[in-house]
Amino acid sequence: MTAATTPQRCRHHRVLFPAFIRQQLATARASSLRRHLDRCPDCWTAWNVYRWHRARGSALLGDLREFLADDFIPYYDSSHALAAAWDTARPTTPAARAEFFRSSTDYLYNSTIWTASGNRPPYLRQARPILEQLGVHTLIDYGCGIGQDTLRLRSLGYTVTPCDYHSPSTRFLEWRAARSNRPIQAVEPDRLDAATGTDALWIIDTLDHLPHPHRELAQPLSTVTTVITENISIHKAHGAQRFHNRRTADELINFFADHDFSPQRPSPLTSHLTVWLRTPSASDTPTAPR
Ligand SMILES: [Zn+2]
Fold first, then answer.
1. Ligand 1 center to 41 CA (angstroms)
2. What is the DSSP string of 215-253?
3. Per DSSP, what are the bridge partners of residue 235?
4. Which residue, 58, 90, 281, 289, is most buried by CB atoms nearer than 10 A?
5. How many other CB atoms sit within 10 Å of the CB of residue 116?
6. How far does residue 36's CA lie from ligand 1's centre (Å)?
7. What is the gyration radius of the CA atoms in the chain, in angstroms?
């Protein structure tokens, strides 16, 4: 226990875990809990154990155990391991960044626990009516990671191109897809040309990872008519993960405007998402019949 905290204060924070993991805490209380977790190693450890307990028994965690076999480490604190590995590697060039993610098993654990514990918001559940309404059939899952959305979207009948650095996470995705007799291969971000003609760019919790989104997303944004991101107005910053490039909602709105996309008005049913539609440009206006 650190001097700045008291056991009572810690208990006060830990009772919030069940609501916090389901993203059901009011913003102020969630921020307060995040700040406490960042400062209190004991509560951080309790939070890590809590997440693992919540993930226990899930098919996803069972798959990770089987995939990693003898290398599987129960209760591994991947969040801190990831932050520490980043601080040690300190990659500065795009190539070094890519190499970091290509070799990160911490990231595989982290994405799996985030998803299997129920901590990850129900993005796909909220998006399904929108995808249907917009007539989306084909998607790029950009920054697919372990590909939970890729696999789920495919099982719902969508055609999906998973895109990410080839890494332990994408190998896990490919292993799971092959095991269900529907093999798939993740495409590296600079090889996305093959995905021309895609309806939608599904890019969840990935914008913060892109150092130069104008460069990285130019190709996919030139082909799609719909973009779905996490809700850009929810403040997510916490933890010691310095690989994130935090951008404000206004910065993201300006970025997408440069590519002719504008955000749609959010609704309570899509509270975790921002849906972006291509703004009709002057050249799209049909000319009057002669
Ligand atoms: Zn504490």
1. 7
2. HHHHHHHHH-SEEEEE-TTS----TT-TT-----HHHHH
3. none
4. 58
5. 24
6. 6
7. 20
Taking the mean position of all CA atoms in its chain, how far away is CA 281?
Answer: 30
Residue 239: the pLDDT is: 46
Instruction: List where CATH 3.40.50.150 sits in the chain.
Output: 123-278
Amino acid (1-letter code) at residue 196: T
Task: Return the SS3 of 264.
Answer: coil
Range list of β-strands (E), the chain: 138-142, 159-163, 200-203, 226-230, 261-263, 273-278
Distance 7 CA to ligand 1 centre (A): 7
DSSP code for 167:
S
Cα 56 to ligand 1 centroid, rounded to whole Å: 24
Q: Which helix (H) or strand (E) holds 55?
A: helix 41-55
Low-confidence residues of the chain, pLDDT below 70?
1-6, 194-196, 235-243, 281-290
Residues 47, 26: Cα–Cα separation, whole Å = 18
What's the confidence (pLDDT) of residue 284?
Answer: 54
Q: How many CB atoms lie within 10 A of CB 272?
A: 19
CA–CA gap between residue 175 and residue 68 (Å, rounded): 11
How far apart are alpha carbons 256 and 251 in whole angstroms? Answer: 9
Q: What is the CATH number of domain 123-278?
A: 3.40.50.150
Q: Compute the distance between CA of residue 85 and CA of residue 282 in angstroms, rounded to an integer.
A: 48
Q: How remote is the CA of residue 26 from the centroid of ligand 1, in Å?
A: 19
